[in-house]
Specification:
By secondary structure, this protein is an alpha+beta fold. About 20% of the residues lie in helices and about 25% in strands. The protein has a six-stranded antiparallel sheet with strand order 19-26-20-21-22-25, with helices on one face. Strands 10-9-8-5-11 form a five-stranded antiparallel sheet. Strands 15-12-18 form a three-stranded antiparallel sheet, with no helix packed on it. Strand 2 and strand 3 form a beta hairpin. The N terminus is likely disordered.
């Protein structure tokens, strides 16, 4: 059976640190023992962690069923991806997708946003140029970046000091993400795009067009590809080609593989020993898609094809992000709760929704626990496998398991209440904690759980 390259060794190399009092140097959530900070701990407690849960072919079949269900809606990615005949979008649907109203006060670096700024930004969307029927374009994202509600890089917040919630950030998109281009700003500096899970504005510098549907569809479905199966890493330094030098790739990124026979040496004259060769997307001077060949060292955690869907692989990938900072809707090249879940599962080939509201109706084995008591939920969780997705209002977590009557998760959290004084703790990162942890509304996480997605 195909295996991914484990990054657990890095944790083992740090074991000497844990031979002393960990609490002196490392802060953890209450009730979290130092052993719980290792994927190996939870793997050892899982039933048949190396067993493939469902195959990649079965995952692709599930994806297709979900895509077919939305392929008739011109507001969905699947409408355009499923047929090259669907080349346009109506004015009504485009305006619906782009709709935005400033319904509250906003701040930029502590300064209140003026009405002039709001009006100018809304006008910048170039809505007067929208026709009754509008041709779409086919393109790819070049580097991981933001997907914005309005065409601006400004960070807009609802209060004067909190900058980690950017109300303009709708999501983030990964390198090599296929998108449908629906509209552009007056100066073509921003494009409004549709992804398989979200829509929003991206800067033109981070997008490259294909010459039609056939080229785009071929690039998004390569025969042989590599998937990143750890948090993130950078490509090697390249003194000849700065377009690929130290470029970052992150978990779930899918890159086309190049056979060794097709590529002998790099621009530097370096030969391809003990490396995979992949195609990194870029844009030509005219804005069209081109590729650069780059090396991925064998020591990085990657998979040829999608990662085999096992609990062991899922837990190792999840724990490769432990301690990573929180990023609202993917802000700051980081992940929020639902983005963490989406990127984790897309490494296996799952095409799942980006947001918690989208995850709730997702067609996957689901247990509705919204009306259950805490005691009932606890008795049920004893039998829920690790890696299942727990859904709360506006939040998602990955379940780890039960230890001594407590139920543990890993997630990317903005805020939790850990202190006995009920003080809100700005965890702002990926952490392990138990479901007795309270939320801002004073309820414990286990009280707030409404749905459990067992994910087959």
């Amino acid at each position: 059976m195909k295996k991914i390259i484990s990054v657990a060794l890095s944790f083992a190399l740090c074991s000497s640190v844990f031979s002393t009092d960990i609490s002196k140097y490392l802060r953890t959530a209450p009730n979290v023992d130092r052993s719980m900070l290792s994927a190996d701990y939870w793997i050892s407690r899982s039933i048949e962690p190396e067993k493939v849960i469902i195959s990649a072919d079965e995952i692709m079949r599930l994806n297709k069923e979900a895509q077919d269900a939305s392929a008739a809606d011109e507001g969905k990615f699947a409408y355009y991806a499923s047929s090259k005949k669907n080349k346009s979008i109506s004015k009504a649907k485009l305006l619906e997708l782009m709709d935005f109203n400033f319904g509250a006060d906003y701040y930029i670096e502590g300064a209140k946003v003026t009405q002039f700024y709001k009006d100018d930004l809304l006008a910048y969307r170039n809505l007067d140029a929208i026709k009754d029927t509008n041709d779409v374009g086919y393109a790819f994202i070049l580097r991981r970046g933001g997907l914005r509600l309005l065409p601006t890089a400004d960070i807009l917040t609802f209060d004067e000091v909190r900058s980690f919630y950017d109300e303009m950030q709708n999501s983030s998109v990964l390198m090599n993400e296929p998108v449908i281009v629906l509209h552009q700003t007056v100066d073509s500096a921003w494009y409004f795009v549709l992804t398989s899970y979200c829509s929003g504005w991206v800067p033109s510098s981070n997008i490259a067009f294909c010459h039609g549907y056939d080229e785009w569809n071929g690039y998004r479905n390569p025969a042989d590809f590599l998937v990143v199966s750890e948090n993130k890493f950078r490509l090697d330094y390249d003194w000849v080609n700065d377009r690929i030098s130290e470029v970052e790739v992150s978990m779930g990124t899918k890159l086309q593989l190049v056979p060794v026979s097709d590529y002998k040496t790099s621009y530097e004259g370096r030969e391809a020993y003990d490396n995979y060769i992949v195609r990194i997307p870029d844009r030509s001077q005219s804005g069209y898609l081109i590729f650069h060949n780059a090396y991925i060292p064998l020591g990085k955690s990657v998979s040829i094809g999608y990662v085999p869907y096992t609990r062991e692989n899922l837990l190792r990938m999840a724990f490769s992000t432990l301690g990573e900072r929180y990023g609202w809707a993917g802000l700051y090249d980081a992940r929020d709760a639902s983005q963490f879940v989406m990127e984790l599962y897309r490494a296996f080939g799952f095409d799942i929704p980006r947001s918690t509201p989208g995850l709730i109706p997702m067609d996957a084995p689901t247990v509705d626990v919204s009306d259950m008591s805490v005691a009932h939920k606890q008795s049920l969780l004893k039998y829920i496998p690790s890696g299942s997705i727990l859904l709360l209002p506006g939040f998602a977590m990955v379940y780890l398991g039960e230890v001594d009557g407590k139920y543990y998760v890993i997630s990317s959290s903005g805020e939790n209440i850990y202190e006995s004084s009920n003080k809100i703790t700005q965890t702002q990162g990926v952490s392990v904690y138990d479901l007795g942890t309270k939320r801002k509304d004073g309820k414990s996480c286990i009280e707030a759980i409404s749905k459990i997605k067992v994910m087959y």
